[in-house]
Amino acid sequence: MDSQQQIGDLLTHYEAEHLIEKLQIVNIEEYGSQIWFKQDEILQRLNMQAHVNAMVKSDEFIMDSLVTFDKVKILIYDLIETEIWKQKVLPLLKNHMLKINTYRSYIAVYHEAVVCNLLEVIMFHRTAVDSADEFLIELIDYCYRKLVHLTKFPQTKKVTKKTVEDVLKKTRIEEYQEQIDDIEFKICMMCVSIIRFISDYVKHLPVSVVHHLLEVNDILCILVPLIEDKPWLRQTSEGEREKYENSKWQIVEKSEYSKIVKLEANVWITIYNLFMDPECRKKYELNEFRKSNLLRLRKYMNEILLDQIPNLSHMLRTLEELSIMNVQSVPKSNPFIVQQIPEIRENIIKGKNWNDIAEKQKNEYFVNDKETAKQDMQRLADLYGQNIIDGLMEGFKCELCKKEATKRCSQCKTVWYCTRECQVAHWKDHKIACKKIVEENKEKEQRKKEMISDLGKENVPVDNLLNNNTEKQILVTEIEQKPQFKQNDAQLEQQQQQQQNQNLDELD
User: Fold this and answer.
1) Where is this region: Disordered (predicted)?
2) What's the pLDDT tens digit per position in 194-242?
C-alpha cells in the first residue's frame, strides 16, 4: 500500500460538519431504506475519521462537531433502535436475508457495531458524556444488557483452525449466524470501554445517573464475573494464547503472558472508579451478596496486576477491611431523589406490528434485483475504496523499515514512521513528494476559500473549481442556503414578475 495516499480521502473539518448536520432519526419502519443506507454511510465515514484523529492524537473535530450540533443523542437513539430491530425484525427476515446480496445483509447487522464504535471513541471525552444528557441513562442500560449478554456468551476458550473442508461444509445460514455472533461479541467488548469512560466522570454525573448505574443496574455486580471469565482471552488448539485487542484476536507472545489486556484493565479501572469514590460508596447499598461478590476479586489482585495498575493496591486494602466488617443491609435510597426512567426503548417498541414491518422491509428494502446490487457495489466502492482502511485495520507501517508506525510527517501528514531516525533517513526520498502534496492541499483550501467568499456575488462555476463530488455537493448546498444568494433569487423572481405584467399590459 502506498502510504502517501493513506489519508488522502479522509474527511476535512468542513465536510465532517456538513455530514454531521445531516444526521437524523430514521424510524425503525424505514430500517434498510435508501435514507437509512445513506446515513449508515455517513456514520461509517465519521467513525473512520474519528479513529484516525484518536490514533494520531490530532484535533478531534468529529467529537466536537457531534457535541456542537447535539447529535450524540441521535447516535444513542440509533444504537437502541438497531438493537431492537435485530431482536424483533431480523429473526423474521433471517431466511430471506440469505437470498439477497451479501453486502446488504451484512450491513444490516453491522450497523450497530459502527454506531457503538463511534460512541466508544467520543465517550472518552467528558464533553461527549455531558452532551448525552438524559440519554446517558439509555446508553448505560444498553451497555448493561450487552455486559449481561457477554457473561452468557458461549465461551470458546479453545479454538481450532478451520480447514477448507470445514468452510465448505457450512451452510449459508450457519455462516450468517456466525457473522451475527461475531459482531455481537465486538459490540459487547466496545460496551466495556464505554462504561469505563462513563465511570471516569462519575464525580460529575447527575445523582440520578449514578443511582441508575449503581443501584438499578448494579454494574459492579456484573463486572466481577467478567474478571473471572476473561472473555478477551482464548487458546488455540496449537497451544497459542490469543487476546482480543484493537477489535481483533491477536497471538500473545510468551514474554507478554503476564501483561494485562487493555479490556481487562478497563474493567478493573471501572470497578475502582465506582467502588473507591466516596460518593458512590455512600450511594451503594452493601449487603451480604454484594459484599461476597466484591470479595471474589481479591484472589486476582496479585503483585503482577498491582505493578501494572498501582491504584488497585488501595482497593485491595479496602477489600481486606470490608472482609472483616459486619454488613447490615440498611437502605441508602434517598426518598427525595428524582429517578429518571429510560423511555426510548419502550417508545420504539410500543404499538409496533413486527410482522408487518418485516414484510414491508422484505418487499421494499431488502430486495434481490440487479439495480439494488449495482447501487450496493457502488456504495461499497465509494466507502471502502479509501486507502486509509488498510491502516486502520492493520496499523500504519513505517515508510522505511515497514515496522508498526505511530508518527507521521508533520508537513504532508501522509507518510508514517516508527522513529525520528527513520524519518530523517527517508527525508531525501520523501522531500519532493512532500512538497507537492503540501502545495496541492494549499491549492485545494484556497479554492474552497475563494468559493465561499464568492457566495451570493455571482454564479460560481462549481464544476470548474472542484473535482470532488462531495465538495461540489457541500458547496452548492451552501450557495443555496446563503442569504445573499437567496436575495438575488428573490430579485430575479420580482423582475420576471414585472416583465410578465408588462407583457400582459401590452396585450391589453
Assistant:
1) 486-508
2) 999 999 999 999 988 999 999 999 999 999 999 999 999 998 888 889 9
Among 350, 256, 258, CA closest to 302: 258
Cβ contacts of residue 370 below 8 Å, gap of 6+? none
H/E stretch holding 235? strand 233-236
DSSP string, 25-84: ---GGGTTSHHHHHHHHHHHHHHHHHHHHHHHT---HHHHHHHHTT-HHHHHHHHHHHHH
- Nearest to 44, CA basis, from 103, 115, 119: 115
Pairing type for strands 158-159 and 407-408 reads unpaired
Task: Write out the H or E segment, with its range, that includes residue 433.
Answer: helix 420-453
What are the pLDDT digits (tens) for 309-351? 999 999 999 999 999 888 766 555 555 566 777 889 999 999 9
Q: How many CB atoms lie within 10 A of CB 144?
A: 19
Q: Which domain holds residue 320?
A: 138-333
| 247 and 98 fall within a common domain | no
Distance CA 290, CA 223 (A): 12
**What string of DSSP letters covers 285-348?**
---HHHHHHHHTTGGG--HHHHHHSTTHHHHHHHHHHHHTSPP-------TT-------HHHHH
What string of DSSP letters covers 84-103?
Answer: HHHHHTHHHHHHHHTTS-HH
The H or E element containing residue 496 is helix 483-507
- Measured over the CA atoms of residue 18, residue 19, residue 25 and residue 31, the dihedral's sign is positive
Cβ contacts of residue 248 below 8 Å, gap of 6+? none
Question: Measured between alpha carbons, how far is 420 from 424 in angstroms, rounded to an integer?
Answer: 6
User: Per the structure block, which three cell numbers stand in for 502?
Assistant: 408588462
C-alpha dihedral (376, 382, 385, 389), degrees to nearest 10: -100
Residue 441 C-alpha cell reads as 492541499
| Residues 264, 222 within the same domain | yes
Distance CA 3, CA 415 (A): 6
Looking at residue 480, its pLDDT comes to 41
Say which DSSP state 260 is in.
P
**Together in a domain, 216 and 357:** no
* Element housing 408 (H / E): strand 407-408
- Contacting residues for 60 by C-beta, under 8 A, at least 6 apart: 50, 53, 54, 122, 125
| Same structural domain, 376 and 238 | no
From residue 256, give the alpha-carbon distance in Å to each of 89, 193, 240, 304: 44, 22, 12, 12
